[in-house]
Amino acid sequence: MTTVLLADDQELVRTGFRLILELAGFEIAGEAADGAAAVELARRLQPDVALMDVRMPDMDGIEATRRIGLAGLRTRVLMLTTFDLDEHVYDALRAGASGFLLKDAGRERLVDAVRTVAAGESLFAPSVLQRLVDHYVARPPAGRAVGLEGLSEREVEVLRLVGRGCSNAEIAEALIISHATVKTHVRNVLAKLGLRDRVQAVVAAYESGLVAPGARR
Description:
The protein is 51% helix and 13% strand. The protein is built from ten helices and six strands, in the order βαβαβαβαβαβααααα. α2 (35-45) packs parallel to α3 and α7 packs across α9 (179-193). It is globular, with a radius of gyration of 17 Å.
């Protein structure tokens, strides 16, 4: 059974998420009202997924996500944000978040998101991705550069499509290759660039200039 840690400073929000997820068959491993408590519970309980609010007192969700990653925990973080453009979303992505979800998403979307992230995939609302990229390109972080020299021509093509938000099935169709081959290419790209997951690959595609602002599938 997939275990989930709920981290949000609003008890009512945690209660609502608990009811939805338990009805869907998930086990709620614990609840935290701030980032520090979330990190401690993640260390102790080792949940599959942490549903993490961006904004919490004392230690926010971004720092908590970073510490979970640095601790080498297997817990994958699904970040919650109130607005589709949150000034901290890019920082959370860089900290190692595996997905993003708007707090007003419906119950089916929430359940699907937790399942997706628990299965090792990455997820983010399309509006979050597009606005995030637009915001990042306008204000790129100083000193950050991503080199693609170690990638093969095919891996560069795959990374470009990942950056545009394409799924593995869409990449397979575009490049006329099998789904399994796409997964192999994505895995190789992540390994060669030292990226944790697909979300960070999207960032790398933009940081390297491989995908331009406003690029569409």
